[in-house]
From TrEMBL:
Residues 1-24 form the signal peptide. It comes from Pontibacter diazotrophicus. This is Uncharacterized protein. Keywords: Signal. Residues 54-115 are annotated as: Disordered.
Length: 115
């Protein structure tokens, strides 16, 4: 009986000694796998962030181009409005001058008819 207990103790101890590095190695492998997964996730997140940033940059550039185009159109419209206002003033002045000349001509005609 004593031999059985000693033999059983010896076998259990031997098993514990043999299995211990395997368990320790197993936990190290798990940690390495978790670390590798975490690294891969960080890498994928960085790639996704870069892609999102690139897309945001393209959208911002397109928005800037559109804003510049609208600003240019507004500038051209303002220039055209000024030009139209000058031409309208010129036309108004010409109309007033023509009316004055017509009155003078009417007076001259009236005077010549009276004489």
């Amino acid at each position: 009986m004593k031999n059985k207990i000693l033999l059983l103790s010896f076998v259990v101890a031997l098993f514990a000694v043999v299995a211990m590095p395997a368990v320790a190695q197993s936990s190290e492998v798990k940690q390495e796998r978790q670390s590798a997964r975490a690294d891969e996730k960080r890498l994928n997140d960085a790639v996704d962030l870069r892609v999102d940033t690139k897309a945001d940059s393209k959208a911002a550039k397109a928005s800037l181009r559109e804003a510049k185009r609208v600003e240019k159109d507004a500038r051209n419209a303002r220039r055209e409005a000024k030009k139209a206002a000058r031409m309208e003033a010129k036309t108004q002045k010409s109309r007033i001058d023509a009316d004055n000349q017509a009155r003078k001509a009417a007076r001259a005609t009236e005077k010549s008819n009276n004489n």
